[in-house]
Structures are given as structure tokens and as C-alpha cells.
Amino acid sequence: MKILPAAFLATLLLVQQASARIGETLEQCIQRYGPVVEKKKATLTDSDPEACIFSKGGVTIFTELRGGVVWRMVFRIQSMVADEADTLLRANMPESGGWSNSLEVNGLSYRLSSDRRRIAVITPPAIRGGVASLELATKDFAEAKRRALLARSAELAELAKRRKTTNENLKGF
Predict the structure, then answer these.
(1) What distance in Å separates the CA atoms of residue 111 and residue 87, rounded to the nearest whole number?
(2) What is the residue extent of each domain of the chain?
(3) pLDDT one-digit tens code per residue, 81-116
(4) β-strand pairing of 131-138 with 69-78
């Protein structure tokens, strides 16, 4: 009988140690995951210029910040199992509740937090035994990403309008 409470306590401690990642500062991430192993250019101009990558326990953690606070995280794990994804989802659960049931679209699994302020996307590995990822982002990040994609789409549409499709464009091919 003492095994069950010990297992429950260990699980509870694991979830508590892993909680509140979205919204943490870079310093808090360093305390949680260890030193930054790599810095890359952020994916959005609304983000701080550099995204930070950590590695802990076989998990690669990509963090993107805005105003010094994490607003997007991507966890990459080789052969991620459902329990690992669930633990990461619980650890990033908003105070007001949980996550929606998953919505499967084109092989990806989407979830929305109960407060509608966070989105989670699970991407399965492309090959058996490959790397799977769990992306967590704030609603603000998702909206900024949408604006950036719409702006890029408009740029490409304008470029296509200006481009001439005559044989002169193909000289030298």
C-alpha cells in the first residue's frame, strides 16, 4: 500500500518541478534547464532577437521570448510517448484549468487551453523512432505569427503581380 502513495508523490513532484514554463524569464529557464546551449535568430520580429535552446535529460527545448518572457516553447524528444506529452501539457496548464481534447489535422494534434490563452501542437516523428515535438505558444504569439504570415503572403502576391512571365525572363536557362 505504501508504493501507490510514493508513486503518486513522485508524479506530483515531477509535474510541480515542470510547471509554469510559458511566462518564465530566461533566468528562470536557465535555473530549470541549465545553461543555454545555442542561440538562434527568433522566428518572429515581434520576439526578442535571439531564441535560446536548452538540452536536459534527452529533451531539446527551444524558447522564444518577448520582452524577456517566454511566449513560445518547443520540446523535441526522440520517440516521445503519450505520457511524456501529457506531462509537458500538464506542466504548462493554465491556473484556471486544463486542455481541450485533441483535434487531429493532417497528422498534427492540436489542443487549446481552457482559458483560450495557449495552444499546443504535437507533431509526431516523421519516421519510426524519430524526433517528435510539442509546441506550446501563447495566443499573442499565435496572433503575431498569423500577422507575419499574412504580411509575407501579401509580399509574395505583389511580387507575383510585378513579375513578367515572358520568354525574356527565361533567357539563359
Answers:
(1) 14
(2) 22-162
(3) 888 888 888 888 777 778 999 899 999 999 999 888
(4) antiparallel
